[in-house]
Backbone:
């Protein structure tokens, strides 16, 4: 039975992954916990597709619920670029300006696609990038501003996480190199080959009733967003974080229905867990899922390589960036060292572990925990349980 043939109320739980399912279901026991979905593939087969909780206080989560997953969408956007690289339309070591001539402004003429995809372009600043509280929804204006912006000099000493701008940058490269809009590329390069529709940045109007309500308020600090952002922007060690992720009004923007009207691949991706798990299953399988070749083996080998081990000046950690992904950070002593994926603000995320042939994806509308909305331990715990199950199954 294929995914498309599974009844709307039927879940998938492989007996080997029963402990993972048990852990997941314990996370959603009241409307205050929100809801979520978890999906896993092992060696190309769906072994877990489950959901629980509430999409809103008056609506239960079901098989068709989709969720705003924030930076989780960076992994999907990166995979689009890798698909183009397969066909020679994009080359990792070519200057970005080869595809996007305006990008050469302000001394950026030598910055390569490889550097940009590993957060070394020095264009992390979203704060003040475009005017207006909803300016970030204008993708054309954002692209123009990024092309004109000077790179941060810290780019030469280490990466700086492009929390908001990364998606705009790779989307513009992909669109320029292919001559096709990024929205269409997602449909033809990811959704179409995988046979799954729910890879959305601009969500179709007739599908918006499926979106889970995000809560609580986005601000992860006790002070108002504008005040906190202004203070952090002047605080040594935290300045990069404010510049990258605390643009004016961004807390409102992330909760606004208008967020689903634009293509902002760094943060406004809306997915199901099964869609994400299927994409990462192809990466875990050397580029193949079922009889579909999503990526060539050489491309998969490239995207698994660590591009920089230097400290990230925005995040303050050594993120060990790959080409558009980071490793799976899970609550396990023996980490899956060759894993690639991307987590999102609030707790959603997905990754592939080629060493076990496993992919894992988790989406939720309940951001963080009682202390912070930034993230929490749910996905690291679920990922650890899934990797443990996959290793035992080997």
Residues:
């Amino acid at each position: 039975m294929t995914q498309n043939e599974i009844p709307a109320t039927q879940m998938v739980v492989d007996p080997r992954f029963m402990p993972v399912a048990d852990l997941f279901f314990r996370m959603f026991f009241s409307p205050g916990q929100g809801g979520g979905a978890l999906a896993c593939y092992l060696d190309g087969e769906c072994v877990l597709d489950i959901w629980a909780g509430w999409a809103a206080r008056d609506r239960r989560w079901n098989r068709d619920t989709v969720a705003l997953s924030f930076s989780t969408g960076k992994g999907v956007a990166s995979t689009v670029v890798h698909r183009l690289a397969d066909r020679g339309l994009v080359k990792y070591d070519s200057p970005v300006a080869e595809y996007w001539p305006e990008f050469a402004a302000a001394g950026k003429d030598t910055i390569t696609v490889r550097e940009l995809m590993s957060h070394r372009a020095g264009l992390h600043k979203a704060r003040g990038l475009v005017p207006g509280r909803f300016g970030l929804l204008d993708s054309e204006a954002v692209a123009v501003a990024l092309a004109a912006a000077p790179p941060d000099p810290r780019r030469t000493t280490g990466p700086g996480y492009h929390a908001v701008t990364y998606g705009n940058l790779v989307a513009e490269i992909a669109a320029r190199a292919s001559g096709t809009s990024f929205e269409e590329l997602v449909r033809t390069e990811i959704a179409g080959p995988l046979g799954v529709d729910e890879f959305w940045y601009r969500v179709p109007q007739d599908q918006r009733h499926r979106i889970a309500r995000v809560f609580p308020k986005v601000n992860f600090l006790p002070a108002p967003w504008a005040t906190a952002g202004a203070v952090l922007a002047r605080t040594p060690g935290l300045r990069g974080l404010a510049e990258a992720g605390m643009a004016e009004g961004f807390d409102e923007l992330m909760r606004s229905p208008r967020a689903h009207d634009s293509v902002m691949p760094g943060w406004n991706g809306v997915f199901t867990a099964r869609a994400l798990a299927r994409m990462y299953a192809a990466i875990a399988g050397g580029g193949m899922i079922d009889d579909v070749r999503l990526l060539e083996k050489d491309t998969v080998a490239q995207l698994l390589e660590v591009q920089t081990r230097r400290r990230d000046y925005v995040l303050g950690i050594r993120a060990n960036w790959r080409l558009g992904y980071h490793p799976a950070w899970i609550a396990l002593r023996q980490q899956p060292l060759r894993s690639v994926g991307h987590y999102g603000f609030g707790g959603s995320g997905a990754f592939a572990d080629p060493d076990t042939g496993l992919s894992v994806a988790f989406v939720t509308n309940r951001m963080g925990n009682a202390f912070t909305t930034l993230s929490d331990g749910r996905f690291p715990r679920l990922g650890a349980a899934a990797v443990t199950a996959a290793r035992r199954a080997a």
